[in-house]
Fold this protein.
Amino acid sequence: MQQPKLVNLNKQLSKMEKNLARIQAFQDKGCAVDSSLSEAYLDLRDVGAYLESAQAEKKTEIDQELAETTQRYKNLLVKFESIADEVKLHDEGMVMASSSTLPDFFYRITSHYQAVWKKIEITTTVLGIGMIGFTLISLTYFLVLGKIPFIKFYDGGMSGINGLVFGVGVILGLCVHESAHGVVLANNGIKIKRVGAMAGSIVGGFVEADETTFFQAEPRVHLRFNASGIGTNALLAVTLVVIGLLTSSQLLLFLALGNLFFGFINSFPISPLDGGWVYEDIIKLYLTSPKLKALFLSAPFFIFIIWIILFIRLALL
């Protein structure tokens, strides 16, 4: 293999590395990546065939570089197989999905009063960012003091009916969470491929966005998409708590608690949870210095380490 060809091949591999990283990010966000994976497979196949033919050439001066290039190709192949396995796991089990009725429903409701829907997007985005702060503060508070903040449990404990309502609240939280994602996509002209729920290796709901139209949307749309789900959970929790307190309804309070629990779990600033994507979106939108970006993007890791230390301390008390 001639040196210029080897240089071009490494450039192609660099481009493929970025492409696979992009596909992985879209896969984690719930976007459909089947077509992109097919294209990546064809590119990898061509590079692999080219490298195989190069092995027959005896160019001692570039043997080391060829070996390094081959190793880069193998690493990319492992990465591709990992993403493909994730897609396969997502599709395994019992899947109930709609590719027309539910997506059309979101397009239909957002086609009217678009200004109102835009305000709802902004409101749930602000609440979603606040939800991440609530999660950080409340969990740290619990790990330091051993108490759950902001929540006063019913003195009689959690009865069977309250536990059932809590479970219904979790399901309600899932529904409004995914619906919020669908509304943002439809309201910003992004194609929705499928909406549904699954039970298997992964349990939960999903809204699959078309990768191409999602990628073309503004970064702030990505932020609103990621934050709207947990923001809607927060909005619903506040609404149910207020009504529950005004009517002295324990059932509404436990319904709010179940919904809040779902939003709480998804608010951790760690990818691929929504909180992680929101945190990364904010950093990339509002920080320009690469060093500051790297510092703040690594912050959740150190927070996680602190939580582990606090948890061990709490367990030993």
About this structure: Strands lie at 94-98, 192-199, 204-209. Residues 41 and 254 are 48 Å apart (CA to CA). The longest helix spans residues 114-145.
